[in-house]
Amino acid sequence: MSLIEEVAGIVNSSLQLGNHGIGADRSVMLLGSLPELDSMAVVTLITALEDHYDIVVDDDELSAETFETLGTLTDFVSAKVNGG
Fold it and tell me: How far apart are CA 71 and CA 8, in angstroms?
């Protein structure tokens, strides 16, 4: 499974999107396009990503741009996993 597929799965699971889940496409819009992705859901999603990838995300690393698309979120996770 590719990283983007894993991240899409975590997004779907964290937001409990069920049959309305997002696909593994870099251009899928997240923040502002998914009503389920509110401020509380962002915290849940970050916690799920931290747990799954054994990473730590500091508050000052987060921005709206990180959650703009599935691609930007996957790039962020990739950088964290690879020590960035």
Answer: 10
Report DSSP letters for the chain, one per residue: --HHHHHHHHHHHHTT-GGGPPPS-TT-B-TTT-TT--HHHHHHHHHHHHHHHT----GGG--GGGGSBHHHHHHHHHHHHTT-
Q: Is the pTM of this model over 0.70?
A: yes
CA–CA distance, 6 with 51 (Å, rounded to integer) = 13
Domains of the chain in start order, with CATH, are 3-81 (1.10.1200.10)
The predicted pLDDT at position 43 comes to 95
